[in-house]
Amino acid sequence: MSFNIKTEMEKGFVYSNRVLLGNWYESTMLEEHKLNKFMKQMKNGDLLLARFRTMTKNLNQPTILTQSTGSISFGARITLLAPYVSATDPPMNDKKGLLLGGRISSNEIDYFQDLVNGCSVVGLTGLEPANRNTFVISSSDYCNREGEILKYNQEFLLTLASSVNKKPLFVRYDPNPIPGLCGLYPIYLSEHAVSNTRWRILPIQRPNITRFEQEGQPVQVNSDIVINHCSTNVNLGLNTGSWAMDFHGKVCTPLMRTCLDVYGRELPNNIWQIYIPIKS
After folding, report:
1. How far is residue 24 from each of residues 9, 33, 160, measured CA to CA in Å?
2. Pfam families from the xrefs (predicted)?
3. pTM check: above 0.85
4. Pick from 249, 247, 257, 264: which is nearest to 98 by CA?
């Protein structure tokens, strides 16, 4: 009788990882280690969700642009808009306009959550001025030109506005990059102000006036312009046939090529504007 009672009682015991026997002890220690690691990562903000929130806060923080209804000057905070490029993939006629801005990829978010040296520059769909798409027009000849009017064919640097008070980051294009390192994004942010970071603004081709006649005139905001790379003499554009996924939606791949139609005029993906939303 006692033997049968003992057998019925033993049926209620089930071995699990709480039983400190053999490999179950290792399983318990592993679970405890995973929990401690998770708690430590959560406390230090190292979890992917925490990194994403930090990155979103840093990149999408609103900025205030330099208000102007006419010409633009050195030191102005601006955004660069491609007004005639579709902001959707596939394209839609009622949604146009991409802003030039920085991007952090899924491989980079583990190491930094703000734009740093080496981050790629792409076309962004959002038109709200933020840290990721706001630039400052800086002098390229080591002279203090703060407040001077920017003119056509005058060299300048595009400096990321959020990096001005830290280590400045400049928009750079290398004509002969190392194969395999450039990938889809030929333009990136660099902390070195070299010849490949120099740009100039050209007026668009018009039938009634030449570019030579407009050289030296002030650059107007919210008007069509061409952004030319000084070292290679090619124009900045967007490759509307190449899109990539980003944390905040799709982004358009930049294109360093002078795209002309049969009449020698720039195509829409080569046309930009110094975009300053005018408050009414």
Report:
1. 22, 14, 55
2. CFAP161 (PF24569)
3. no
4. 249
